[in-house]
Amino acid sequence: MLEVLYEDKEIIVVKKPVGMESQSSASFEPDMVSEIKKHIHNLCPEKGEPYVGVIHRLDKPVGGVMVYGKTKRAAAALSDQIRAGKIRKMYMAVVCGRTVDNVENFVDYLLRDSRKNVSRIVEKGITGAKRAELRYRVVDKREEPEPLSLVEIELFTGRHHQIRVQFAGHGLPLWGDNRYNPSWTDKGPKGPGRIRESVALAACRLAFYHPVSGKPMEFFTEPEGPGFELFQKNG
Predict the structure, then answer these.
(1) Residues tagged active-site
(2) What does DSSP say about strands 63-69 and 201-209: parallel, antiparallel, or unpaired?
(3) Is the overall model pTM greater than 0.70, yes or no?
């Protein structure tokens, strides 16, 4: 069932579940746009096919807060906020390894390989490379059974697989990431709890201005999943 955090005539803010595409999918599996359209249609069936504008995206294995436009003017205004850097996106993640600093910025250049659906860090100036920036702070740490850190991340750019690629490139791959963490890939070792599509990354906080009224809005959800449970059990 669709979990709605806020809704009015212009926008809808929802909690995307882990394992669901954030935009229309070619597969027969449910996706967020289809679920939102069904929700709107059930509320107002007389209005016909609902409009749902995709503003930003989350990877399929990542859950958390998302906003969609219910009108074209709202979608356009929110997209303008994305381009102007006025939408603040905060994430929580569990990373493998020991962080050098409790607070740090990562600035890299990422190149996407659409055929393989992966991105990698490359030198500045490489054709097609895009600047990627984030800041993180360590919230909690644990050493057993392996060194792990719970981090809060503020994303300043929205590149393909950005958080997963940058942390892996800096020697701190995400717990459960079967694409960029060597110990979790299909070819890597399989230890206890190695669950496919269980990457410990969640979009926990989203702040923006209402596209029509201009009112500041902010939404928060708790991170969920086996990686985050390691720290909940740790107290």
Answers:
(1) 59
(2) parallel
(3) yes
